[in-house]
Amino acid sequence: MTGKDGGGTWTSPDNLGQQEQDFDRALRPKSLSEFVGQDRLRANLSVAIEAARGREEPLDHILFCGPPGLGKTSLAFLLAAEMGGDILVSSGPALSSPKDLVGLLTRLERGDILFLDEIHRLPRSVEEFLYSAMEDQAIDVTLDQGPAARSLRLHLNPFTLVGATTREGLLAAPFRARFGIVERLEPYPVADLVAILQRASVLLGIETDFDAADAIAHRSRGVPRITLRLQRRLRDLAQVRKRSSIDLQICHEGIRALGIDDLGLENLDRELLQALIQRGGGQVGLKTLAACVGESEDTLEVVYEPYLLRLGFLSRTPRGRVATRKAFEHMGAELPTRDGDQADLYGRQA
Ligand code: ADP
User: Fold this and answer.
1) CA atoms within 13 A on the CB side of 192
2) Separation CA 350–CA 348 (nearest Å)
3) Which protein residue has the closest C-alpha to ligand 1 atom 21?
4) Whose CB has fewer CB within 10 Å in the chain, the N or C terminal residue?
5) Which is more confidently placed, 100 or 15?
């Protein structure tokens, strides 16, 4: 087994393979009641759905924020199902000019959902073009060019824009303000990940023992997509070892083979911590760190660092990233004797 799945590193969502996309589709919760956890968010959405249904109006525009794999796409799909509409899907990087949006917007029927993933990556011109679509349900299309150019106002069916972003801070304030509902998804506690895994076990017919499910959930960094990826890899191992279920032994063997440790850290996390430790703990800029481990700055910031920060292994300072005392201990490295600023830093983070 390798730590790569569909081209990205183990944890990273980049380049989801076709097989993984198929699984994602098969496992997507079909209704809000099937969506596990995120109780506050579910309660808010349930009120919004009921109110919109009562008024026979489309839902307000919704923005979902949070790291990859937490369920933003699933929510967009289940909202369409809950509202009895269709969903059209695109993403920030796929829409390079306003004219790319015209086809999508004019195909929307009343109450449909337009889901735009990675919405923070929309070019500014496309974003501004969306403003009138979101507010007035109309767009101005330019016909012809040069002196003959004229503008034609097209009225749209009332629709709901659902945006998903891993980088809420990159959205322009006027754009963000046009979403009536903004919800942030949080990493899932272990019990929720176990529930997600058990649901997948039933849907995919993969027997998973409870203690194995618990061990998988503990190594999933709070991210359902990682839980489900691990489960699929372990299913392969259980099959090859001729076991009727994913048991604890299969779980430990498989997880070790994938290079994942007890906390869910993979090789790239360790390389990242090692790069900091080799430099005496820090302080290393993001650019340098990205070059050291061969990942993009964006992926490090969005996918890897949040978990290391949550574990208390990493600290962001104005002068760069720092490995904490806990990180040195986890990596079995000796804490350097220091003076000045950094001694203080280690002292405080002990
Ligand atoms: P995102 O769009 O945030 O990257 P997805 O919606 O694609 O995440 O979710 C990734 C996978 O995890 C999908 O297979 C989805 O079914 C599953 N998943 C995510 N959140 C939940 C949840 N709360 N309950 C059940 N399954 C979930």
Assistant:
1) 18
2) 6
3) 71
4) C
5) 100
Residue 284 tokens read as: 């290393």
| Distance (Å) from CA 29 to ligand 1 centroid | 8
Say what the pTM is.
Answer: 0.88
Q: Which two tokens stand for residue 265?
A: 């850290």
The answer to whether the CB of 236 falls within 8 A of the CB of 243 is: no
Q: Is 225 a catalytic residue?
A: yes
At 287, phi and psi to the nearest 5? -60, -45
Print burial letters for 52-66: b (CB count within 10 Å at least 16), e (below 16). beeeeebbebbbbbb
Query: DSSP character for 147?
Result: G
174-231 pLDDT, tens digit each: 999 999 999 999 999 999 999 999 999 998 888 899 999 999 999 999 999 999 999 9
Q: Which of 219, 225, 279, 321 is catalytic?
A: 225
41 CB within 6 A, ligand 1: no
Helix ranges restricted to H, the chain: 18-27, 39-55, 72-83, 98-107, 124-136, 173-176, 190-204, 210-218, 224-240, 248-257, 267-278, 286-293, 297-299, 305-311, 325-330, 340-349
Residue nearest (by alpha carbon) to ligand 1 atom 13: 24
Q: Which helix (H) or strand (E) holds 162?
A: strand 160-165
